[in-house]
Amino acid sequence: MKFKEIEIKKHRDKVVEFRKDSFKVSFGDTSGFNEEEYLHWLDEKGKDFSKGFVLVEEDGKYIGQLELTIREFEGKEIGYVNLYYLIPKKRGKGKGKELHDYAKEFFENNKVSEYHLRVSPSNYAAIKFYLKNGMEEIGTEVDGKVIRMRGYL
């Protein structure tokens, strides 16, 4: 598995495809997805955290995507997972662990000891994966639409 930094012009169609699918898995549809806003956000954040915005390649094909940042939460800097994504046929085969390991290394390199993400309460497979990898639920946000989870390095 290789992790390649996202280049918007080169990878636009693929990152949009993957992000749309993640919306569908998390929220049931893509109605909340705005392509232009997403690409602008991706471009801006990617400049700050280029090693955190990567496509995952295996056997010459893109099979996943990661979006990782550093941000402040309750007065301290934490790592934040904006997206863990694998194409459907690669899910449940141990590939997620490699994405998770990459994320932890990114956070270690950025000198944070804690990382968070938010997940839809209906995304049972993702929640199970996060719990299995040592994360814990710490509360709901956005009127119960997401669960915040935390992990430590």
Topology, pairings included?
Layout (H helix, E strand, L loop, with lengths): L1 E4 L2 H20 L7 H14 L4 E6 L2 E13 L2 E11 L8 H15 L4 E6 L4 H9 L3 E6 L4 E7 L1
Parallel strand pairs: 4-5
Antiparallel strand pairs: 1-2, 2-3, 3-4, 5-7, 6-7
Outline the structure in words.
With 153 residues, the protein is an alpha+beta fold. It has one domain (2-117): Aminopeptidase, CATH 3.40.630. It is globular, with a radius of gyration of 15 Å. A seven-stranded mixed β-sheet has the order 1-2-3-4-5-7-6, sandwiched between helices. The chain contains four helices and seven strands. The mean pLDDT is 96.
Number of helices: 4
Approximate shape:
globular
Reported by name, the CATH topology is Aminopeptidase
Uncertain segments are none
Strand order, biggest sheet? 1-2-3-4-5-7-6
Give the proportion of residues in helices. 25-40%
Report the end-to-end length measured between terminal Cα atoms.
22 Å
Structural class: alpha+beta
CA-based gyration radius = 15 Å
CATH homology superfamily: Gcn5-related N-acetyltransferase (GNAT)
Q: What is the number of beta strands? A: 7
Mean pLDDT: 96
Protein name: GNAT family N-acetyltransferase
InterPro entries: Acyl_CoA_acyltransferase (IPR016181), FHA_dom (IPR000253), GNAT_dom (IPR000182)
Pfam families: Acetyltransf_1
GO molecular function: acyltransferase activity, transferring groups other than amino-acyl groups
